[in-house]
Automatic annotation (TrEMBL):
It is an enzyme of class 2 (transferase). One of its GO terms (molecular function) is magnesium ion binding. GO terms for cellular component: cytosol. Its cofactor is Mg(2+). Residues 6-188 form the UmuC domain. It catalyses: DNA(n) + a 2'-deoxyribonucleoside 5'-triphosphate = DNA(n+1) + diphosphate. Keywords: Cytoplasm, DNA damage, DNA repair, DNA replication, DNA-binding, DNA-directed DNA polymerase, Magnesium, Metal-binding, Mutator protein, Nucleotidyltransferase, Transferase. GO terms for biological process: DNA repair; DNA-templated DNA replication; error-prone translesion synthesis; SOS response. This is DNA polymerase IV. It comes from the Bacteria. Poorly processive, error-prone DNA polymerase involved in untargeted mutagenesis. Copies undamaged DNA at stalled replication forks, which arise in vivo from mismatched or misaligned primer ends. These misaligned primers can be extended by PolIV. Exhibits no 3'-5' exonuclease (proofreading) activity. May be involved in translesional synthesis, in conjunction with the beta clamp from PolIII. Pfam families: IMS (PF00817), IMS_C (PF11799), IMS_HHH_1 (PF21999). Monomer.
Length: 356
């Protein structure tokens, strides 16, 4: 198989950068786009680089961000603005290739093995895309350029912000060998800790294990690790990657102990899910209920229906039935979530649906 040219582009501190661009008062200051720390408290979606210096990170509770950086400014997200920028960025991508796989509003893979303008050099294309984003949108992006998605994505993160990192085909294997296991994206903290307990710290350590060893310890993902540490990742850039599921969940300030408390919370979550499904014109056949108990034990239960649904009432009824079947007497619930999946034939606009 011939060598591919893959670019991963990632906008730098995307939501925060758009806010700083559009509001001079925010420039050069620590800001966090996301929920405010008041009341039950929101979470940080994106922190500006000024805020990151204080240790503020995405997905951190806003209350914690305020402790770390008392002068931080909280800004409510403006998704319409981010979507508009995202569309413009995609239009820039399309000048070079139609093989674009968006991962979210601010991230995408591009396959430029063959590019529309016959530039031939993936590095030159990445430079031009970065320049166009700067000129036309007054924002910066970081690019990773390599032979597959995995390495390109890791590379884009290496010299942020405004970076461009190229990992040549001949460097891929040694690059993977030297990579610390926690840098493998998709390896969560739990798996990384497990690897370290097994004395596996880098790609080179993983490489010493057989495929069977890896599968035994890490399940079917082990097969993926086996290939990836050898620089093998033949996953194609998929321009029409479908949305696979739409969901919402909520963590409660106090554990829920009775059905009377659980039903209204479940209904609220169902409403969020129904709104999202309807906005994206999706109907799912499978309803999944997630429950996390006060001891952090987690279960999921699902029910598949004969037809796809996206109406509030059916989601509520199905989710309530699933909840009742878990025998919710004498339990303390700290989180509930509902997800719809199994969308069937429809091909919606690509991209993951964020958790807002
Ligand atoms: Mg980003």
């Amino acid at each position: 198989m011939s060598v591919r040219k893959i670019i991963h582009i990632d906008m730098d501190a995307f939501y925060a950068s758009v806010e700083q661009r559009d509001n001079p008062d925010y420039r050069g200051k620590p800001i966090a786009v996301g929920g405010s720390p008041e009341g039950r408290g929101g979470v940080v979606a994106t922190a500006s680089y000024e805020a990151r210096k204080y240790g503020v990170r995405s997905a951190m509770p806003s209350k914690r961000a305020l402790q770390l950086c008392p002068q931080i400014i909280f800004v409510s997200p403006r998704f319409a603005a981010y979507r508009e920028v995202s569309q413009h960025v995609r239009e820039i991508f399309r000048r070079y290739t139609d093989l674009i796989e968006p991962l979210s509003l601010d991230e995408a893979y591009l396959d430029v093995t063959e590019d529309k303008l016959n530039i031939g050099s993936a590095i030159a294309i990445a430079q031009q895309i970065k320049q166009a984003i700067r000129d036309e949108l007054r924002l910066t992006a970081s690019a990773g350029v390599s032979v597959n998605k995995f390495v390109a994505k890791i590379a884009s993160d290496m010299q942020k912000p405004d970076g461009l990192t190229f990992i040549a085909p001949s460097q891929v294997e040694s690059f993977m060998e030297n990579l610390p296991v926690e840098k493998f994206f998709g390896v969560g903290k739990v798996t990384a800790d497990k690897m370290k307990r097994m004395n596996l710290h880098t790609g080179a350590d993983l490489k010493k294990l057989t495929e069977n060893d890896l599968v035994q310890h890490f399940g079917k993902t082990g097969r993926f690790y086996f290939k990836i540490v050898r620089g093998q990742d033949d996953r194609p850039v998929q321009p029409h990657r479908e949305t696979k599921s739409v969901g919402a969940e909520d963590t409660f300030p106090h554990d829920l102990t009775t059905l009377e408390e659980m039903y209204p919370e479940l209904d609220k979550i169902a409403l969020t899910v129904a709104n999202r499904l309807q906005k994206h014109q999706l109907k799912g056949k499978t309803v999944t209920l997630k429950i996390k108990y006060s001891d952090f034990r987690q279960i999921t239960r699902n029910q598949s229906l004969p037809h796809g649904i996206n109406d509030l009432e059916t989601i509520v009824v199905t989710a309530r039935q699933l909840l009742v079947k878990t025998d919710p007497a004498d339990v303390r619930i700290r989180l509930l979530g509902i997800t719809l999946s199994n969308f069937g034939e429809e091909k919606p606009e690509t991209g993951q649906l964020s958790l807002f």
